[in-house]
Amino acid sequence: MVQIKTKTVEDYLNELPDDRQAAIAALREIILDNIPGGYVETINWGAISYEIPLETYPDTYNGKPLSYVALASQKQHMAVYMHGVYADPKQLKILTDAFKDMGVKLNMGKSCIRFTKLEKIPLDTIGNLIAMTSVEDYIKHYEKVKKK
Questions:
Q1: Distance from C-alpha of 55 to C-alpha of 73, rounded to nearest angstrom
Q2: 67 contacts 46 by C-beta, under 8 angstroms
């Protein structure tokens, strides 16, 4: 990830070029409109991060808050990191089908969906997928995977 020094979401957004600022801000709004209660918005991992605070769930493998979704502006692209989608084959199918329906090739790493223009990602699907996993369900899944 690109290293940043900002401490607030507003500073992060203000430091972006205008085109990226608009795209990241729009995607942020979709996340905020859809994310279940209990996740908090922070700056972490060089990105705008939506995570489970340590006060809620301290038993993470690295002692850091458990990340659910993140937004970042990288050197060559922007990315939305959707850890829940990566971990759930049903959600991954919903996402891949949405890209297929748009006629856009999905550019995805393990959990990052890379894009250069907001029009190239299925915003409604992103919002719906984010809304699918409560903090409690995400913790249950994390604990199940952690035991393996």
A1: 28
A2: no
- Domain encompassing residue 140: 9-147
Q: What is the CATH number of the domain that holds 68?
A: 3.90.1150.200
Residues in the chain: 148
Q: 3 lies in a domain?
A: no
Contacts of 104 (CB under 8 A, 6+ apart): 120, 121
Structure tokens at 6: 């900002």
Tell me the pLDDT of the chain (148 aa) as tens digits.
445 678 899 999 999 999 899 999 999 999 999 999 999 999 998 899 999 999 999 999 899 999 999 999 998 999 999 988 877 889 999 999 999 999 999 999 988 999 999 999 999 999 999 999 999 999 998 898 877 6
Q: Domain total for the chain?
A: 1
Sheet strands (E) in the chain: 40-44, 47-52, 66-73, 78-82, 112-115
- Separation CA 123–CA 18 (nearest Å): 20
Run of H or E residues at 138: helix 135-147
